[in-house]
Amino acid sequence: xxxxxxxxxxxxxxxxxxxxxxxxxxxxxxxxxxxxxxxxxxxxxxxxxxxxxxxxxxxxxxxxxxxxxxxxxxxxxxxxxxxxxxxxxxxxxxxxxxxxxxxxxxxxxxxxxxxxxxxxxxxxxxxxxxxxxxxxxxxxxxxxxxxxxxxxxxxxxxxxxxxxxxxxxxxxxxxxxxxxxxxxxxxxxxxxxxxxxxxxxxxxxxxxxxxxxxxxxxxxxxxxxxxxxxxxxxxxxxxxxxxxxxxxxxxxxxxxxxxxxxxxxxxxxxxxxxxxxxxxxxxxxxxxxxxxxxxxxxxxxxxxxxxxxx
Length: 310
Hints:
By secondary structure, the chain is α/β, with parallel strands linked by helices. The chain has two domains: 2-157, HUPs (Rossmann fold); 186-306, Beta Barrel (Elongation Factor Tu (Ef-tu), domain 3). The chain is 33% helix and 28% strand. It contains ten helices and 14 strands. The strands form three sheets. A six-stranded parallel sheet has the order 1-4-3-2-5-6, sandwiched between helices. The chain has a six-stranded antiparallel β-barrel with strand order 9-10-13-12-11-14. A two-stranded antiparallel sheet has the order 7-8. Helix 5 (102-113) packs across helix 6 (135-145) and helix 7 (164-172) packs antiparallel against helix 8 (176-183). It starts with a strand and ends with a helix. The model has no long low-confidence stretch (mean pLDDT 93).
C-alpha cells in the first residue's frame, strides 16, 4: 500500500477512483465495512481504490482539547493496509484545512486531486468549515461534480452501535472483551521496554516495563499476548499504579511466559485478550506473589483452552 503524506506527493492517478473518507481511528467493525465496500465496489466498477484520512485528528484542532486515540497513526495505517486498499492519503489537518468550505473540499481535493468517481463514507460523515457538510450535502455536490456516493449505515453489535468513542469508554472501564468484539480483533498497544525497579524479578515474575505512545491502556490485570520481533508469546499484562508499593504513576508491565532474554529498549506489541481481575492493594509482597501465581494459572488455563492440543 502506498502511503501519501501530502497532496503534493500524490502520483499520477487513474481518471476514475473510488475514495473512502474518514478518520478510521481504531479501524473497528464499522470502518471495516466501509473498507470492504470500497474494495468490492472498486473491483466491480474498475475503479482505483484509495482512502483519505486525517492526521492529527480533526477534533484536536477544532475542539482544542485532548483527544485520546485508539491507535497511533502508524498502527492505523498498518491495519488499513490489511484491507487491500492500494493507496492511503494522510491529509495533514490544521487550522487552514479546517477553514475550507464543504464545496471547496470536494471540488479541489476529492474531485480534482483524487479524481473521485465514487465516494464512500459513513452515514454520520461531516466535512468542511464548521462541519457544515453532511451526507445530504455530499449528494448535492455529487450531482454537481459528476461522482456517485454511498453512505454506509453504522454497524450494530449486540445492540450497541460500533464507534471509536464507545470503544474508548469500554477500554477505560477495562471491559476488554466487549471492546475487542467491537474492534473485531484484540486491542493492541505498542511501546518500548524501559528500566523498572525489578520488583517483579524479586517476586519471581520478571516483567517488561513498557513505555507506550498509545493514549489508552485498559486498567487491570489481563491475559495477553506480546509480540517481540516476529514472534508472539503468551503473557500477563498489568496496567495500573502498584498500590501495594504506594506508587501512583500508571505503569504498563507484562510478564512474558517462558521468555528469559533481555528486552531492554526493545519495541513490543501487547494484545489484550481477557481481564483476570482489577488491581488490588496487598498487605505484603508475599501476598502479591501468591496472587500473581494464581493469575498465571488462570492465564495458562486460558491458552490451554484456546489450544487444547498444545
